[in-house]
Amino acid sequence: MQPKQPVRRLGSLTRMFNGGTPSKNDATLWEGTIGWLSPKDIKQYFISDASDKVTPAAVMQSATQIAPAGAIVLVVRSGILAHTLPVALLQAPLAINQDLKAIVVRDPNILPEYLGCYLSVMGERILPLITKHGSTVQSVETEELHALKIPILELGQQQKISDLFAQALAHKQQQEQAGRALLEGMDGYLLGELGITLVPPNPGSTLFFRDYSIIRLGQRWDALYNEGDVYRHVAQGKYPMARLNALMVHCQNGFAAGRADQDLLNQGVVQIRPTNMTASRELDFSRNVYVSTDLIKLQPYDLLQRGEVLFNNTNSQELVGKTVLFDLEGAYFCSNHLTRIRTAEKLHPSFLTYVFNAYQRAGIFFRLCVNWNNQSGINVDALRKIPIPLPPLNRQIEIAAILDTRRREASSILHKAHTDFAAAKAEIQQLILA
User: Fold this and answer.
1) Given a cut of 60, is residue 294 above it in pLDDT?
2) Is-same-fold flag (7-152; 184-400)?
3) What is the mean pLDDT of the chain?
4) What pLDDT, in 10s, does the model give residues 130-156?
5) For the chain, which has fewer Cβ within 10 Å, the N-terminal or C-terminal residue?
6) Dihedral sign, CA of 185, 188, 191, 194?
7) CA angle 324-329-330, nearest 5°?
């Protein structure tokens, strides 16, 4: 469906520029107050700050550039571009890295708020027009982005569309906050029942924590050496503790499947990956990787068994340790980024799932991670040593059942936030293209 309004090429309406990364070898460059955006920060539309901070010297000595308030920022190099175009509208000046592109409107006939809204709601239609899919990571082609045709509506209509989009975003945010509050309350309930008070980490700048405040061992960094006893709060609970090794039947990783091993026709067996885990710690199969059905006979030992706990052993440091319970019928595999755990009779798998997720959100796994090449992980040997509080089995089941109910309620709220926002975006698309 083509717009009926006049169109202009994006490049004729704006100026665009990429950023860069200050040297990670100089810790002082990362001790400033200027927000420095990277793709991990583009998780919401309106952005006024960044998790990493740099100094004016960092800006002067590197390729990073400061995008002004009102600039639109796109992620232009990331695997996420295979299915999503992350867009943000800056509400304050922020520096950007090389995987982002700032778009600054310079034509008085178009509102920055409208242009940002257009790029966001039309993201799925725009992606095939502006991206190339390389062998390693997807990226936006600058020439195609400049040539992108933007409908030029009357300014009052642009403002109306921008306001509708802002209202839809606010509604979505309210719903998501309600869902997250339920999820966060689950941890409080669980830890209260166990008599445990966990203290989340405060590492400051995540980039600084990863690269400077931990001891380098060859090409890896092991945070555990600086953290001491990360389980000291867990040990103060009202139930006896036992290491996971004594509470399980097996603990093993899934297997790697590169592009050559995948069934690109999507007709094989789903290989569950960390991207199949939702924020509410449920399995989501909207985007899947498939492997050949031949592996069912060739690797029967790699088939997931119902009741296994799936632990995310490799990810960004903040996400290592997110856990789901596999409770599905049928044939499924999992990648080597997940560890499969089958519990012994005295440990209920659903209870273990909730304990691990409480540990993860409280930062225990963050502090246990080994870091290398921009990834973090926890190996099977370290996982086996993790202490688990052990109420009587019937009490584990009761606690897990209460948490299951709360999790389903949170999941329902988050799902409604998604569907309501999708409906609002569809309405805005119709207004733009009418």
Assistant:
1) yes
2) yes
3) 88
4) 987 655 678 999 999 999 999 999 999
5) N
6) negative
7) 110
**Residues 345-379: pLDDT tens digits?**
999 999 999 999 999 988 889 888 888 777 899 99
Residues in CB range of 116: below 8 A, 6 or more apart: 45, 72, 87, 88, 89
Residue type, 106: R
pLDDT tens digit sequence for 12-49:
999 999 999 999 999 999 999 999 999 999 999 999 99
Q: Under a CB-based contact definition with an 8 Å cutoff, are residues 131 and 53 in contact?
A: no
Q: Where are the chain's structural domains?
A: 7-152, 184-400
Q: For residues 55 and 19, is the Cβ–Cβ distance under 8 A?
A: no
CA distance 1 to 248: 56
Q: What is the DSSP string of 198-261?
A: ------SSHHHHHHTSS-EETTEEETHHHH--TTTTGGGSSS-EEEGGGSEEEEEE-----GGG
Whole-structure pTM value = 0.74
Q: What is the pLDDT of residue 211?
A: 40
* Domain range 184-400, CATH architecture: Alpha-Beta Complex (3.90)
Q: Distance (Å, rounded) from C-alpha 119 to C-alpha 165?
A: 12
Token pair 């600039």 is found at 71
Q: Which residues of 318-346 are buried (b: 16+ CB within 10 A; e: fewer)?
A: bebbbbbbbeeeeebbbbebbbbbebeee
C-beta of residue 187 within 8 angstroms of C-beta of residue 197 = no
Question: Could you give the C-alpha distances from 396 to 23, 200, 344, 351, 403, in angstroms and in order?
Answer: 49, 24, 13, 6, 11
Q: CATH class for domain 7-152?
A: alpha beta
